[in-house]
Amino acid sequence: MQLSISKWYKILAPRPVVLISTVNIRNNPNAAPFSFVMPCSTEPPLVAFASDPDHHTVKNILETKDFVVNIPSRKLLKQLWTCANDFPYGVSEIKKANLTEEKSIKVKSPKIKECFAHLECKLYKHYRAGDHLLIVGKVLRADIDEKYLLKKQYSITKADPLMHISGTEFGVLGKVIKVR
Ligand SMILES: Cc1cc2nc3c(=O)[nH]c(=O)nc-3n(C[C@H](O)[C@H](O)[C@H](O)COP(=O)(O)O)c2cc1C
Predict the structure, then answer these.
(1) What is the DSSP string of 103-168?
(2) Residue 148 covered by a domain
(3) Is residue 54 within 6 Å of ligand 1 at its C-beta?
(4) How far is CA 33 from the centre of its chain?
(5) Is residue 180 part of a domain?
(6) 147: CA distance to ligand 1 center in Å?
(7) Coil, strand or helix: which one is 43?
(8) Minimum CA distance residue for ligand 1 atom 7
(9) Does the beta carbon of 15 sit less than 6 angstroms from any atom of ligand 1?
(10) Other C-beta atoms lying within 10 Å of the C-beta of residue 52
(11) I need a labelling partner for 98 at 20 to 30 A (CA). Which of 65, 81, 83, 85 fits?
């Protein structure tokens, strides 16, 4: 069955969903969920995401040149959904969602304490990609809650990250399978 071309990305799913936190020049924090996210280089360490150019997230990153990729687990679904609201510019979704801002080590943008892992990124490049802007960040620091490490390996079943399917639908991972 052929799918309408406008719906193509709906079958490239589920996608990991992250909360991207930023600040504007007045130091007002902002956070929003994003699922058009991918690693794109290991050396240098680069991560990319695609955003509607009108999002406050983009405005802040172009102003202050950094951001944090916060990785939420299933238990933060409601808070993540609150962060997707279109609050006025300068209003902190982190506060609105009753989440906690935590000072980052390498960047001005705050981390979200309740997320189990964080990538502190400096803006590396940005490109126009159709109706989105592709933002590439250089990862300056990465941390993860050690209770989600099993023999120093990231345990996906313990961390329980959220995957976005479409609209209000999310997936979670129940099981890990091995090829051999
Ligand atoms: C699960 C989920 C994933 C999303 N992924 C993206 C995305 O990848 N790119 C995008 O531009 N917007 C995405 N959005 C929409 C933004 O999060 C939403 O428009 C938000 O209000 C933007 O906030 P901001 O203006 O504070 O940056 C997503 C929303 C949800 C709920």
Answers:
(1) --SSSSSPEETTSSEEEEEEEEEEEEETTEEEEEEEEEEEEE-GGGEETTEE-HHHH-B-EEEETT
(2) yes
(3) no
(4) 6
(5) no
(6) 29
(7) coil
(8) 34
(9) no
(10) 13
(11) 65
Cβ–ligand 1 distance for 73 under 6 Å, the answer no
Provide the residue range defining the domain that includes 96. Answer: 17-171
Our answer on whether the CB atom of 57 is closer than 6 Å to any ligand 1 atom is yes
Q: For atom 26 of ligand 1, which residue has the closest CA?
A: 56
The C-alpha angle with vertex 18 and arms to 103 and 152, in degrees rounded to 5, equals 75
Asked whether residue 115 is domain-assigned, the answer is yes
**Which residues of the chain, if any, have pLDDT below 50?**
none
Please tell me the total count of domains within the chain: 1
- Let me know: does 94 contact 31? Beta carbons within 8 Å: yes
Beta-carbon neighbour count of residue 3 at 10 Å? Answer: 9
CATH code at 108?
Answer: 2.30.110.10
Predicted pLDDT at 47 = 98
Predicted pLDDT at 174: 82
Amino acid sitting at position 156: I
pLDDT at 102: 98
Provide CB contacts within 8 A for 9, sequence distance 6+.
36
pTM: 0.98
Q: Ligand 1 centre and the CA of 174: distance in Å?
A: 25
